[in-house]
Amino acid sequence: MRTKLLPLLFVAVAIGLWSLVSSLQIFSNLVLPAPWEVLEGFVEEAASGRLYQDVVASLFRVTIGFGLAVILGIPFGLWMASQPVLRDMMLPVVNFFRNLSPLAWIPFAILWFGIGDAPAIFLIFIAALFPIILATFAAVENIPSVYFRVANDYGMEKGEILRKVTFPAIAPQVITTLRVTAGLSWLVVVAAEMIAGNDGLGFAIWDARNGLRMDLLVSGMIVIGIIGVILDRLLVQLTKIPGVRWGYEQ
Amino acid sequence: MSSKTEEPIIEISQVSHAYGSVRVLENINLKVMRGEFIAIVGPSGCGKTTLLNIISGYENPDEGSVCRRGKLSMIYQKDGLFPWYTVSENIELSLRHITKSEQRKKQTLSAIRLIALEGFENHYPHQLSGGMKQRVELARALSGESDILLMDEPFSALDYITRLKMRGELVTYLRERPRTVILVTHDIEEAAQLADRVIPMSSRPGSILQVREMTPPRPRSLTDPAVTNMVGELLKLLNLQNGHHVVNIKKGEDHAL
């Protein structure tokens, strides 16, 4: 109860102060739009259907880009952990790309894919792929060898060991990484759409800024933040699966 | 209740092993009889775990051979339970050969009853105490079809009081489900209390110092004079009688006190 009420209290006080400052008209609306203007802007965007379209566009890009990174990154991390030659060859490469800001790819993303869904999906994919590969690889490397001995003792076959030992053993760490990279994807989609988009929430706030509609800019920011929190809350549900709790309670 | 027979179940002949240039085991010869409880004691690094790994077939010796006439099950010091499996699921690992799930469930329940963990069937290992976890390991190892139980420092991660309790429980479980046991431990007291034969090992390279028959037959109390005498003798044999490892003190050389 307390953890729910205290943040609400804070938000209420902050909006109160914001309203107070706005009603005193210390700053121009371009510097700080009033809360009621933001609300009006939000209602306007929602009523016109643009908000809905932008949310769907952004979520679509994140789903595809992040989904591809998960589908390819986890198997590649597993493969890297099982092949010493591949590990030695690829570990520095993966590390390099993981430390390269995905935003540095924006020029190429536009040159190769133009404007729209493709460059954003590409950037999200690049941003999420390398951390997922690395985390999967590291999680496999850290599995205590005694688990494999036990699996062997009780006669598990190779494929069975993968399903019944490797996967559950890395699950908690991989889930944590999925949370982090999903958050990262949500950050990247906004940046990508600001530069290489013609719709989506990132485009919407950039468009608002170009039209000097600070009310729409702020309402867009709030929507982006709230959706980010909801995405994380959804992924937190994965940590509640009984078979992975051990990874978070030790 | 020693159920020792004259039928050898494990024969270790002239086993030597090295890791690179480090000789770990030197000419180990040992015959273990069916139903016997053997304790191998020695300091860390004396090669006792390597010997256990060779007995279990996990490692092959450089020289010599091991002949086993039975199925093995192994108990590890820690992390032997899968944390993503419940107590029942972990125990069921040793019952995988039973195809009828009804029968498997029945045997799992009987194993849980043996270790008095009724009500914890659906708990995960991280929700159990250290002692409870080792009990589940014991239940798993004893519910399979194995003839031989290999234990690698099974109680050494537990606190002293829990360790004492676990010894008593091991004796009880073995009465219900007899096995040939090879226990590797650095706990001299544990070896003297539990085993039919105690085998102290020297280190670098690990070799058998002596083979000591324990009388009276098990079970024994910790305060049994035979146990306390054996503890004293083992301390002497392992050069630990003054409570510290005696080393030659030469000038400029590190020495332990």
Descriptive account of the structure:
The complex is a heterodimer of chains A (250) and B (257). Chain A is mostly helical and 250 residues long. Chain A has one domain: MetI-like fold. Chain A is built from eleven helices and no strands. The two termini of chain A are 25 Å apart. Helix content of chain B is 31%, strand content 23%. Chain B has helices spanning 48-56, 87-92, 101-114, 130-143, 160-176, 188-194, 225-237; strands spanning 8-19, 22-33, 37-41, 63-68, 72-75, 148-152, 180-185, 197-202, 207-208, 212-213. In chain B, the strands form two sheets. In chain B, strands 3, 5, 6, 7, 8, 9 and 10 form a seven-stranded mixed β-sheet that branches. A three-stranded antiparallel β-sheet of chain B has the order 2-1-4, with helices on one face. Chain B is globular.
| Average pLDDT number of chain B | 86
Helix/strand-derived category of chain A reads mainly alpha
Unreliable spans of chain A are none
Shape of chain A: globular
Molecular shape of chain B: globular
Q: From the alpha-carbon coordinates, what is the Rg of chain B to the nearest angstrom? A: 19 Å
Question: How many distinct helices of chain B?
Answer: 7
Number of domains of chain A: 1
